[in-house]
């Protein structure tokens, strides 16, 4: 048996063991090619002629089969978080040039964080900046708790959906290479992620105008991201410290209340009510529309 055949059997076994949802490929209609890279292609498609989703295909070789297996393991365990792109399942296309299984993700309607900030800078407020920063920090804290570090986040792999943050492609670092992060390096990688959070906070600060009545809180916000950008990793704050401080800057619209985000009626997208408390976000109610 070839190495590729063996890996493909591992992929099929994992899909079956984890009861990953399978969708009939004939129910999808490809709308456009979004991204065409060396080993992967990303498409926007319509499911059942009414629901827009993302399909991701992989070139058929041993290396990319490893990537598919690891990406499945990664997303399958963490996508319940409201600020992480939702993995919906797999579909199968019989094309010898690609791995038969394609991954199905929720679509996003706001583009990347970079494009969103550029197009809406004059419309965004202090509250928007705090909300986005808090959502990013909460998602990073959640991933760290799952043992996922060295995320490599930037303005192009964070997306906007219905004016809320969605992290994506955070798997394209150590985890997709099949490497195990050694315990002695875990703290370093976490502080590396804190640095990227600080950089993202700085980018948002540079792109959003403010009213005079938030001058005081802005100084505190600036101090947080500057501390995150400290050259000495051990001098950077813990991610939970960032989360708790950002929560304290929220105004009455979200401070101490449920942050309710309702998606359109879409069988692929989660609908939830999330509470920010002292230990981070938890899901009060989840409903799937299958």
Automatic annotation (TrEMBL):
Xref: PROSITE patterns: PROTEIN_KINASE_DOM
Assigned keywords, A-Z: ATP-binding, Kinase, Nucleotide-binding, Transferase
Protein kinase domain ranges (all copies): 28-269
GO terms for MF: ATP binding; protein serine/threonine kinase activity
InterPro entries: Kinase-like_dom_sf, Prot_kinase_dom, Ser-Thr/Tyr_kinase_cat_dom, Ser/Thr_Kinases-Pseudokinases
UniProt-recorded name of the protein: Kinase-like domain-containing protein
Organism field: Gigaspora rosea
